[in-house]
Design goal:
By secondary structure, this protein is mainly alpha-helical. Helix content is 38%, strand content 6%. The chain has helices at residues 41-44, 48-62, 71-78, 93-96, 108-127, 136-157, 189-206, 218-232, 235-247, 305-308, 354-367, 371-385, 396-410, 417-423, 453-458; strands spanning 83-85, 271-275, 301-303, 321-323, 335-337, 349-353, 428-429, 439-440. The strands form four sheets. Strands 1-3 form a two-stranded antiparallel ribbon. A two-stranded antiparallel sheet has the order 2-6. A two-stranded antiparallel ribbon has the order 4-5. Helix 8 (218-232) packs antiparallel against helix 9. It is globular and about 60 Å long.
Length: 468
């Protein structure tokens, strides 16, 4: 039951998410999507099969192109200094040039907002149902989905945690109940993070301990919590969660020889949580992340030489940026990202992998004053890429610069660079740039995405982000 019917058309604002988002492809008796008021939860979730189908619907939803299938990863990269638009650029081109709006051309302002809240709504429906049989593991996964979606929302539509001293600036609405008539206002970033952490901790209490990178497990939750704590600047908890995952023994770094295989579609020991695609999913170049990079896809974004030139010759990670003379040279250059080589979208997309966990622990330990521990973790990742790389000896701010550089090289095209810049209160400065705006000093109102105009129009309590 990997695939769930997922057919919601038109605009669906947060306040009228009236559909029951549970259908199962193998059972016609299971609920078709219909108004929430017309079907009670006791009718919707009667058996373990119903609960299985419902949680599978959440996994299906995050595959969506407006979520982890493309935009939750592409958007922060397009805002960063790692990508430049090709001559054919269309998707996110307005945000790439820092001219985005609440009615942006790619409609990411509205669609990513909606798909995240649909995921939350689906999780809430599971959590509000109390069957007579044990569904603790499924409820644990539902808590994890609710936490992940709130986290992705708050970092996309709200400024980073320390933008204000007490994180009292605008975040996103916290939604933990099914109430289709509510018109929610935006909570503060601090409140949203409190809810995210609480939900992930609830997940840890209920979820099973299986190590399967296609589904939530305790280690997946801990890995994601390490990221949340890093963004919150709770360094001790970030380091602790990262160490738990590293020390679990469930994962190992791919060798340099097998590095490219991480992104080629098959499961790899380094993947902690990944979006799995098969021929049954049939995403195609038009919706999968790979399409924007491949010549046989949309051919829209190219890596910058700012990024490429940071990578030492011989580093395995540099091999995932390839020469392609057909690009034409000039401002566009001749290099192409090849991290996701299958233009049909059969390659899995990483949500979080072990190398990030090492670098999270390195950054946390730097801020905790444990320079030698931070250096050691950076060395592990750097020397995997190039065995002859020199040991990291930098201290102070220079060590933080080395950590962020290693994150930039290791995690490029995985949706991290922009948020790494802003949460460290750094601007975006592009030397290799084809956009109309190349330098954006920190802080800037445009470092968050606009709330979709439709949400503003139908909910008088929804406040737009400044500058839009």
């Amino acid at each position: 039951m990997k695939k769930i019917i997922n057919k919601i058309s038109g605009k669906t604002p947060l306040i009228i998410l009236l559909v029951v988002l549970f259908t199962v492809s193998c059972s016609k008796d299971f609920l078709e999507e219909q108004p929430q008021q017309s079907v009670s939860m006791s009718q919707a979730l009667l058996t373990t099969t119903d609960f299985d189908a419902a949680i599978m619907g959440c996994y299906d939803r995050i595959q969506n192109a407006t979520y982890y299938g493309r935009y939750i990863i592409l958007t922060p990269d397009a805002l960063s200094d790692d990508l430049k638009g090709n001559a054919t650029v269309n998707r996110l081109s307005d945000y790439h040039s820092y001219m985005g709006s609440s009615t942006d051309r790619s409609n990411v302002s509205e669609n990513t907002f909606q798909v995240c809240y649909r995921t939350i709504d689906q999780a809430n429906r599971i959590l509000e149902t109390e069957p007579s049989f044990d569904v603790d593991d499924i409820k644990g996964q539902a808590y994890a989905f609710r936490a992940l979606a709130h986290f992705d929302l708050v970092r996309t539509y709200g400024q980073h945690y320390t933008y204000t001293a007490d994180a009292s600036h605008l975040g996103v609405p916290i939604v933990t109940t099914v109430d289709p008539l509510r018109k929610p206002a935006r909570n503060t970033v601090a409140e949203v993070y409190t809810q995210i952490i609480a939900d992930f901790n609830s997940a840890l209490e209920l979820i099973n301990d299986d190590a399967n990178s296609y589904y939530f497990s305790k280690n997946v939750v801990k890995a994601l919590l390490s990221r949340v704590y890093l963004y919150k600047e709770d360094w001790a908890n970030a380091a602790s969660m990262a160490s738990d995952v590293i020390n679990s023994g469930d994962y190992s770094l791919a060798s340099a020889d097998n590095y490219a295989d991480i992104f080629a579609g098959e499961h790899n020991s380094e993947m902690i949580f990944e979006i799995n695609y098969t021929s049954l999913d049939n995403p195609g170049a038009a919706t999968h992340l790979a399409g924007v990079y491949q010549a046989s896809g949309q051919n829209e974004y190219l890596p910058t030489y700012d990024l490429y030139d940071l990578m030492p010759d011989g580093d395995v990670r540099k091999s995932l940026i390839i020469e392609d003379a057909s690009i034409g040279g000039g401002d566009f250059g001749t290099i192409r990202a090849n991290k996701y080589p299958d233009p049909l979208g059969y390659g899995n997309i990483p949500v979080i992998r072990l190398s990030e966990i090492y670098l999270t622990r390195a950054e946390a330990n730097y801020h905790l004053g444990n320079a030698s521990a931070a250096q050691a973790d950076v060395d592990i990742i750097r020397k995997r890429g190039l065995a002859t790389a020199a040991d990291v000896t930098a201290t102070g701010t220079a060590l933080l610069d080395e950590i962020l550089k290693e994150r930039r090289i290791e995690l490029c095209f995985e949706g991290h660079r922009f948020w790494d810049l802003t949460r460290n209160k750094r601007g975006v400065f592009r030397n290799d740039c084809t956009a109309s705006t190349c330098s954006i000093p920190y802080p800037d109102d445009r470092f968050v995405i606009a709330i979709g105009q439709f949400e503003i129009d139908v909910n008088e309590n929804m406040v737009q982000n400044p500058g839009y």
